[in-house]
Amino acid sequence: MTAALAHIFRHPIKGIGSEALESASLSPEGALAGDRAWALLNDAAEDSDNWQPRRNFLQVASGPKLSAIRSEAHADGRVTLRHPNKPDLTFDPVSEADALRAWVTPLWEESRPGPARLVRAPGHGMTDRPDPWVSLGSLTSLKALSQRAGRPLDMRRFRINLWVEGLALHEEVELVGRTFSIGGVTFEGVEGIERCRAPDSDPATGLRDVGMLPLLENSWNTRDFGIFARVVSGGTVALGDPVATP
User: Fold this and answer.
1) What is the model's pTM?
2) What are the Cα distances from residue 77, in Å, to 15, 43, 62, 155, 164?
3) Is 45 helix (H, G, I), strand (E, B) or coil?
4) Those residues with Cβ within 8 angstroms of residue 140's Cβ, 6 or more apart along the chain or in another chain
């Protein structure tokens, strides 16, 4: 396999912004450091700090305008959010959650339960699964899916952590059940990622413009795109790190 890590993304607040990185720390207990470290409950959800399914939070599948938010997590704990139709917001999640709620409310669907309490993820990121996994995608598969769609598909639609270039088409699926490494970090592929409506939304506009589930089903007879992986032995990955299997 001749492949390398091409892009790294984390999402400091679940469903609200993506951040491109040049390197990231990973561990078996915490997955990708700082990813989904916070999540904004909706007011129909249980008021709990425990892991909850994504329907209990503000997230792109229910609020497509959120897909256009960019985020940046600062060393002092503050987070900056940017949206093409709003002034930037820099706030402290610990003490200034009201500022986040006010900023994001106009971008949220009025028909959906509104923003309630900002919660800190328990132990590892508030991902769509209660396990400390990371997500991995292939640029080769993304290019093929874009061709099927008849337009370039922005990788940010899929909110994947690690994007690899140089794999054969669907070779990432073959990593499920296998051990592989990126740089000095070892992973085990766990399962494919079944998609929801979140990737329907274009991160450039915040508008739904692709029916991703029908596209996947008609193209490859699946609802999966990308895989989840478990961190076996931690460390730091950086852009350009080689991908290898035993």
Assistant:
1) 0.96
2) 18, 25, 27, 26, 29
3) coil
4) 165, 166, 167, 168, 169, 171
Per-residue model confidence as pLDDT tens digits over 140-196:
999 999 999 999 999 999 999 999 999 999 999 999 999 999 999 999 999 999 999
103 φψ region: left (φ > 0), alpha (ψ -120 to 50), beta (else): alpha
Secondary structure (DSSP) of 79-110: EEEEETTEEEEEE-TTT-HHHHHHHHGGGS-T
Q: How confident is the model at residue 1 (pLDDT cuts 50, 70, 90)?
A: low
- Non-local CB neighbours of 96 within 8 Å, separated by 6+ positions: none
Q: pLDDT (tens digit, 9 = 90+) per residue, 161-177?
A: 999 999 999 999 999 99
Q: Residue 50 has which token pair?
A: 């425990």
Specify whether the CB–CB gap between 79 and 91 falls below 8 A.
yes
Does the pLDDT of residue 51 top 60, yes or no? yes
Q: If DSSP codes are grouped into helix, strand and coil, which group holds residue 122?
A: coil
Confidence grade of residue 246 (pLDDT, cut at 50, 70, 90): confident
Q: For residue 165, what are the β-bridge partners?
A: 4
Q: How far apart are the first and last CA of the chain?
A: 10
Domains of the chain from N-terminus onward? 3-11+24-30+129-244 (2.40.33.20), 34-120 (no CATH)
Provide the residue count of the chain. 246
